[in-house]
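Question (not urgent): is this output format expected?
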Amino acid sequence: MAVEHCPPSAWNRVRHRVEYAHKENRGLQRRLRKVEAKLVGVRHIADAKVILMKTHHVSETEAYDLIREKAMSSRSTTEEVAKAIFEAHEILSMGGKR
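Got this back:
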């Protein structure tokens, strides 16, 4: 069947499929952004735990508990606290590398 001979109902079906695929794609892109952000947060938490383990000589569990307690007391997420710890450590570490 040639394109110019397609009935309008066929075009409507194609249009609906394209609209559905586009909507599904947007939803998948949103999910991907959320998963990527979560992964960055998990990495920050892992980095912050290592920093706390080395600087405060605590176990991994104790390091996470410190992060969690700070997050709860400051009404923020563990990811935000971990990012702050990581960034502060980077800044403070720069002093000895001049």
